[in-house]
Amino acid sequence: xxxxxxxxxxxxxxxxxxxxxxxxxxxxxxxxxxxxxxxxxxxxxxxxxxxxxxxxxxxxxxxxxxxxxxxxxxxxxxxxxxxxxxxxxxxxxxxxxxxxxxxxxxxxxxxxxxxxxxxxxxxxxxxxxxxxxxxxxxxxxxxxxxxxxxxxxxxxxxxxxxxxxxxxxxxxxxxxxxxxxxxxxxxxxxxxxxxxxxxxxxxxxxxxxxxxxxxxxxxxxxxxxxxxxxxxxxxxxxxxxxxxxxxxxxxxxxxxxxxxxxxx
Length: 264
Prior knowledge:
Belongs to the metallo-dependent hydrolases superfamily. InterPro entries: Amidohydro-rel (IPR006680), Metal_Hydrolase (IPR032466), Metallo-dep_Lactonases (IPR052350). This is Amidohydrolase family protein. There is one protein chain. The chain is α/β, with parallel strands linked by helices and 264 residues long. The chain has one domain: Alpha-Beta Barrel (TIM Barrel). Helices cover 31% and strands 14% of the residues. The chain contains seven helices and eight strands; from the N terminus they run ββαββαβαβαβαβαα. It is globular, with a radius of gyration of 17 Å. Mean pLDDT is 91; it is low at 253-264.
């Protein structure tokens, strides 16, 4: 298994602004806290380029870390990136939580193109109202590998969310991460997963536990068990390994940015 969405942090190294006093996650979380660590992709938790260096250093000494999705400002993308093939993706703070128009603003398009040219996948953290805008972004930058985090953050399979997912499914360079779902009722999650599987096929879906954020509602093991139970066995190799291997591949070996459009 590749868990494609794991966070780690040590508060003595950096204070995460979103972890306010009294927040239940306001403590250190390290890979040592996970029993039987599988292969993981570490995803940024702080809007600080210095965190990227820390995550890459951890990856270099931890064989289980197969990639790092780091924070870079897509509106001011750096000319030079860390020279480490373990840097496989970029996630910038949400640029638009409304109708998604900012996703296709010239400066953001330039940043996404630069990330794609550097061989990086681009994780998108958005709300359902911005998904149509994300589809326009995918059309505008067809060479970019775009990863929709947390299924687009729906609570239920609303008409707005379904419409956005249909638009994204038409873009072969978009994949969807089954992550950030621990707080959802099982019936609601089943409906969301069924729609995603129908629209994207298993080869365009990948799993992420969103640990330790998931622990606000469930253990990481519970998240894995529930997601596994909601997916047909024939899809498990794609969702729990194959898609992540293809999307978050080392930059040195990235031959082609587009993902397959086939369904299963």
